[in-house]
Design brief:
four-stranded antiparallel β-sheet; binds adenosine-5'-triphosphate; about 240 residues; Rossmann fold; 2 domains; binds magnesium ion; alpha/beta
């Protein structure tokens, strides 16, 4: 499988804390890869730097065979790279439907008038139906439960038809039924050819769904292998036990 995303030598420090330290890995096209590691090992920072929410101190990134010199969230979204956040980000005052529509960049005029183009509305309605949120379409997103907000965020990023989706802890704080729902949606998009990189602490979820598993420790990858191999890797156990 070829690499859809390649990062090399990424470094990012916050004051004296080196969140990413010469971090490099590849995300194979057509796979569901996991990015795991202990708390504070740099997973979210890796997502932030890759998607242009934070600038790296050094390092390089290529996506779909193109070098991305200055990652910018909107430009990357147009190129097919989407992400969700560790704390789901929705626009609480906008309707659930409007939130989904905004997953695809809209012209300013449409935004100011809060007019949703017909084709986008239909697409958003389909996604809400698929995600079991159709009954909430016209309600403010603030009224959704935490788990529903995670689903809403996922549905929103699908509006832009991404080739690669980075999910930051998609099951954190959601109930077991919602975990299954999330898994079903990931599998469905995977079957349609979407590539995933998933940060996740819930190991059973990772073991069922992801291959390969990339393990970060102190901002550096220490393993990249099939889930069972990673589970039995002494370096990984040491990292989690804090040795
Ligand atoms: N904006 C920031 N300012 C200062 N330090 C930060 C900032 N963001 C992250 N850090 C630090 O960088 C390190 C990596 O943090 P990061 O959030 O990337 O870890 P993580 O692997 O996502 O952890 P978790 O599993 O808890 O979400 C941590 O030591 C964290 O405290
Ligand atoms: Mg994190």
């Amino acid at each position: 499988m070829s690499a859809l995303l390649t990062v090399a030598g990424l470094t990012k420090s916050f004051g004296g804390v080196r969140a990413l330290d010469d971090c490099g890995f590849e995300v194979a096209e057509g796979a569901v890869s996991a990015l795991i590691g202990p708390n504070g090992s740099g997973k979210t920072t890796a997502f932030n730097v890759i998607t242009g929410y934070q600038a790296a101190d050094s390092g390089s990134l290529s996506f779909r065979g193109r070098v991305v010199r200055r990652p910018d969230p909107c430009r990357l979204q147009r190129l097919g790279l989407a992400r969700t956040f560790q704390q789901p980000r929705v626009f609480p005052g906008l309707s659930v439907l409007e939130n989904v529509v905004l997953g695809r960049p809209q012209p300013w005029r449409a935004l100011l008038r809060r007019r949703v183009p017909g084709a986008d509305r239909r697409r958003a309605e389909e996604l809400l139906e698929e995600f079991g949120l159709a009954a909430h379409a016209e309600r403010p997103a603030a009224r959704l439960s935490y788990g529903q907000r995670r689903l809403l965020e996922f549905a929103s990023v699908l509006m832009a038809d991404p080739a690669l989706i980075l999910l930051d802890e998609p099951t954190a704080g959601v109930n077991p039924v919602m975990v299954e729902t999330m898994e079903r949606h990931i599998r469905r998009r995977y079957d349609e050819g979407v590539t995933f990189l998933i940060v996740e602490h819930e190991m059973r979820f990772v073991m069922r769904l992801c291959d390969p598993v990339i393990v970060l420790d102190h901002g550096r990858p220490i393993a990249c292998a099939a889930p069972t191999a990673v589970q039995n890797d002494p370096r990984v156990l040491d990292a989690y036990l804090g040795e």
